[in-house]
Amino acid sequence: MEPNKGDLRVETTQEFAKRMGLSFSDPLLLTRALTHRSFLNEHPESIEDNERLEFLGDAVLDFLVGAWLYHRYPEMSEGGLTRLRSALVRTENLARFAKKIDLGSAMLLGHGEEEGGGRNRMALLCATFEALIGALYIEGGIAFVSDFVAPLLEEASEEILSGNKDLDPKSVLQEWAQSQGYGTPYYRTVLAHGPDHAKIFEVEVTVNGNIIARGEGHSKQTAAKMAAQSALKIIGIEF
Predict the structure, then answer these.
(1) 216, 201 in Cβ contact below 8 A?
(2) Which residue, 124, 186, 213, 228, could crosslink 170 as a Cys pair with Cβ 3.0–4.6 Å?
(3) Where are the domains of the chain?
(4) pLDDT by residue (tens digit) across 179-191?
(5) pTM of the complete model
């Protein structure tokens, strides 16, 4: 199956596997990891989309990142480890990992999702990265996944720590709002779409009565954090 052609560079599943040095005993496992439900809707001959693998990959990443941090930073407190793990597995960071390996070029998308810029959409990139992790786990277990993500974690963790990016964006936004004499930022869910097992939520954040920004994610909590992060960017606070 070929990705839909668009303005951006695209590649086949086989080309992606070769570029990344990945070998799967069942090539369909990787294809499934890269298949968005929009592609499945337009290609009924396809077996399955990547949502179940996304679920698995999310759980694998939570464990693996926690274990990696425990060994990598033996002097760090429990609170510090928790904050750093949260920063590493949040939607924006996993989307950055996806962009770093150019995962978007290999995603199998439906025409509408393709035309809507799905290859660059943060939530979709994050979900596909998690699905890829799920596929890697099924193929080779936790050690296989660890070898794949360790270089990404090493670089990202140092960058996060050097820039104090392990802080919660909602906390940073609240501190800023209070320093300006405003009340606590207010978060409101304005939209939820997708099937019950894979909903995308959109949340807006209001400060001092003004809507500042919106964010999206697979949970209301993640969407609220993304809204806070967007708000910080808008008001000129590096995060």
Answers:
(1) yes
(2) 228
(3) 13-162, 169-234
(4) 899 999 999 999 9
(5) 0.71
The answer on pLDDT for 1 being more than 50 is no
Confidence band, pLDDT 50/70/90 cuts, at residue 4:
very low
Looking at every residue in the chain, the average pLDDT score rounds to 89
Q: Residue 95 and residue 222: Cα distance in Å, rounded?
A: 13
Residues 13-162, CATH architecture: Orthogonal Bundle (1.10)
- Kindly list the catalytic residues: 58, 130
DSSP the chain: -PPPP-SS----HHHHHHHHT---SSHHHHHHHTB-HHHHHH-TTS---SHHHHHHHHHHHHHHHHHHHHHH-TT--HHHHHHHHHHHHSHHHHHHHHHHTTGGGG-B--HHHHHTTGGG-HHHHHHHHHHHHHHHHHHHHHHHHHHHHHHHHHHHHHHHHHTTTTS-HHHHHHHHHHHTT----EEEEEEEES-GGG-EEEEEEEETTEEEEEEEESSHHHHHHHHHHHHHHHTT---
Question: For the purposes of burial, counting CB atoms within 10 Å of the CB of 44, is it exposed (0-12), middle (13-18) or buried (19 or more)?
Answer: exposed
Task: Tell me what pLDDT residue 8 has.
Answer: 55
> Is a pLDDT exceeding 80 seen at residue 239?
no
Q: Which CATH number, 1.25.40.10, 3.30.160.20, 3.40.50.720, 3.40.50.300, labels domain 169-234?
A: 3.30.160.20
Residue 233 tokens read as: 């960017």
Instruction: Encode pLDDT of 129-148 as tens digits.
Output: 999 999 999 999 999 999 99
Number of Cβ atoms within 10 Å of the Cβ of 74: 7
